[in-house]
Amino acid sequence: MTVVRSTLDTAGEDFLAAAEAMETKLAEVQVEFDKALAGGGPKSVERHHKRGKLLARERIELLIDPDSPFLELCTLAAWGSDFPVGANVVTGIGVVEGVECMIVANDPTSRGGASNPWTIKKSFRINEICEQNRLPVISLVESGGADLPTQKEVFIPGGRMFRDLTRASAAGIPTISLVFGNSTAGGAYIPGMSDHVVMIKEQSKVFLGGPPLVKMATGEESDDESLGGAEMHARKSGLADYFAQDEYDAIRIGRNIVKRLNWRKQGPAPRAEVIEPLYDPEDLLGIVPADLKIPFDPREVIARIVDGSDFDEFKAMYGSSLVTGWAELHGYPVGILANARGVLFSEESQKATQFIQLANRANTPLIFLHNTTGYMVGKEYEQGGIIKHGAMMVNAVSNSKVPHISILMGASYGAGHYGMCGRAYDPRFLFSWPSAKSAVMGPAQLAGVVSMVMRGSAEAKGLPFDEEADKGMRAMVEAQIEAESLPLFLSGRVYDDGIIDPRDTRTVLGLCLSAIATAPIEGTENFGVFRM
């Protein structure tokens, strides 16, 4: 039998302590989510509603199919910066007329929906997802263009947003703009470069320069409607393909555009019958200990996310610090690599390399479940070839062509983060649990290394070593690295696609696998030279 037999004691002291710690972390994250959901705050929201306008998320809710999910992405972008949490734009994958689409909605209640440096970074990530997964793009436009005080960080790199939109069109990926308000300066190029454009009577305003700028530049007197109103663009400039009476009509037209795309998925269809796991997803709250130095069995996670808790383990007795095997998730075949005891040895690296090759031969997507402190160090392991074996695994991950999805559950340190397909290795999606941490190494280890280097430097120069100052330095460095390794920090910098509740992991993975199947899923046999 390949069904995972859980030994998790959900009434045990360790489980209850871990669950309590996870719930505390979830509550902390929810506070930050609420900031993003609040947009520009109650006064801005009220003012927007008084103008007869819908909020960004209200527009999305009406656009997607009734009772269908919306997988919001990069919700906490800009967290910890001087800019609003969420970066003035709501992004995510939703189903419109049965078609999975990437939806990008400016939030006009937050600084007029202007694009700041984090909006740009978030947009680049969203465009990558669209390109890799061949997702049609629907832009819900209402933006004042660039955030002018930070134009030096927005203007030059920001041009890539328009480049990406036109490249999507050239690749046959449909691009649709529904214009809900002002679309000024750079914002005007979003509808200008989209395949399909909907504008709203007496509401949409699309121009490169508004009346004040035109007056300053040319001396010409003009008004919003004649310069860039919906009726002008529908009758004279030809920029508007559809003329909507109001926001609801624009959304109706947008849904009809998607319905007429004749869009077809190019990846495999899932098995029709979806079998739920045998174990309660609520249990996922208590699997990861609050102290990440304490190992946990990732099979307990696998048993609660894969169909029927059925997991066909590969090389179960070899390289036991890495669990690998085959399963189905929401009817989609997947390969899973999951860290068991943190450290990756030579055996684990070779096992992973072979497994990744097999997944490519079978055109099977891979899921990486992170809890690693990195590759093993020490004289014995260096002499045994840990560098070349770790390099084999990184080589395999780098050149694998099947889609990868990464979930950071616990630690994700050092080159182990790379070997398990961290952000730099282009996973199609990467999410973090609130328990995750990621950095070059653990805070105590990093502070200790810095201390030893400083001590050695002092000895080499024949200078006394200040033990008290060293103690303070270590505490400061540990605090800094701890803060910079937490999910909120990483998510704020768009190093993941979102922080998720562990109980939602199966659902999120299912949505991602479905989106991935919009594009063909094809492996490769072309890897770099493996140093044996």
Automatic annotation (TrEMBL):
GO terms for molecular function: ligase activity. This is Acyl-CoA carboxylase subunit beta. It comes from Rhodococcus spelaei. InterPro entries: AcCoA_carboxyl_beta, ClpP/crotonase-like_dom_sf, COA_CT_C, COA_CT_N, MCCB/AccD1-like. Residues 280-523 form the CoA carboxyltransferase C-terminal domain. Residues 22-273 form the CoA carboxyltransferase N-terminal domain. Belongs to the AccD/PCCB family. It comes from the Bacteria. Pfam families: Carboxyl_trans.
